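This is your field. Pick holes in the following sequence-structure pair:
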Amino acid sequence: MDETVAEFIKRTILKIPMNELITILKAWDFLSENQLQTINFRQRKESVVQHLVWLCEEKQASVNDAALLDIICEDVDLFDMKQFKNSFKKILQRALKNVTVSFRETEENAVWIRIAWGTQYTKPNQYKPTYVVYYSQTPYAFTSSRLRRNAPLLGQALTVASKHHQIVKMDLRSRYLDSLKAIVFKQYNQIFESHNSTTPLQERNLGLDVNMDSRIIHENIVEKERVQQITQETFGDYPQPQLEFAQYKLETKFKSDLNGSILAEREEPLRCLIKFSSPHLLEALKSLAPAGIADAPLSPLLTCIPNKRMNYFKIRDK
């Protein structure tokens, strides 16, 4: 690839906000999905850009390819933040006479929105506002609290102002906005493939007692290698997004071969709520099998949280 093309691609990518980079690269459709999965988007932007330019060189990108990327970026720049603010505010004020809306833009093409809700007859409650973070050119918004009465109105305002067909509602909650962003925008590298490591598993410190019987040592080494490999393939080598809990609602019919039992005659399903809590749940799950607390692999219901982008689950009989 020509040096001028490489420099053009580099400068173009540097202009793209990190939260929009994957979306634009997929729209460009020059690099394959497998190639994009080799990139650690949690690195510094300079490192990501360097890796992308190297991939483009490997595929011999042309001037036309670089120009197409630039056109796609220009389309993204057409988003009018001022128009978004005016439209969003107007929709809320039409529906609610008393509402206060404030905006603050950030460097990542995001706008923070503070909404103090009132009604037709009461003034806005400034002590219980809702905070919303919306990222331009995406169908995603993050809210600070669960809304009941005003949730449909907020969704309508975001949908119309952002010019998207719908704002995606996800069963995903956390106090950490960066972790939510990493999961929603696929910046989290949970890659289900073999990972290269500079240190072979055999050379790693597995914490074994040298005075143990050699056969037991060999068996332990094999088992610990297996657990480490499965854990690595499931969670990757990278820090996990920070979530504090995962909740599972179970609904199932009672099944028994015994006739006449009270539960067997029950028409309503049995309901159960299971909640896993931790200051850093995904890192805790990642450590279970290596610590010998759980068997490897863990249940997909636990390991699929970032991939499915949810930590609220409803499990029913098929």
The beta strands are 99-105, 110-117, 130-135, 141-143, 245-252, 270-277, 312-316. The longest helix spans residues 214-235. The radius of gyration is 25 Å.
